[in-house]
Amino acid sequence: NAKLLISRSPVVQFSDQLSYLLGYPHGCIEQTISTAFPQLYYSSLVKSLTNKPGYTVQISTNIQAAIRKLQSMQQYNGSMSYWPGGNEESWWGSAYAYHFLNESKKAGYEVPSETITKLYSYLLLKVKQHPKEAYYYYDLTGKEVRRDIPSKDIFYSLYLMALYSKADGDRK
After folding, report:
1. How far is residue 70's CA from residue 97's CA, in Å, rounded to a whole number?
2. Assessment of whether the complete model's pTM goes beyond 0.85
3. How far apart are CA 39 and CA 55, in angstroms?
């Protein structure tokens, strides 16, 4: 069997990865969002990639299902758990969910404002805490050195707040 896909879109080079992503078997926050996010932008490509007999892609249904699943993963403090039914917060997963939910809303999908507002409040709180993370490297003598640096999640969160006009932390 062979498959030939011709397109003017440069995105077609990622068709194998996108096909794999659409069928990803796990349900953590990262995989849930990563499965739905490209469908916001590449609906026609997704449809052409999964044009198999007996297989239909319902992009709107997939995206709304991801939104509902994310809502069910939201914790009392606005954060997202990494796994459904989990109770440990995931800062990076929360930021990724905030990104996806805002883009979904911009694309016309129904996203409860309360979900986004609670995520925003959580991200703002985390940023204001200025957490550090360990960074290890080797110096010129080959000795391993540990240095505490600002958490990388701070920068992603700040980027998202700026992207959605909430960089000052006061506007909702």
Report:
1. 7
2. no
3. 16
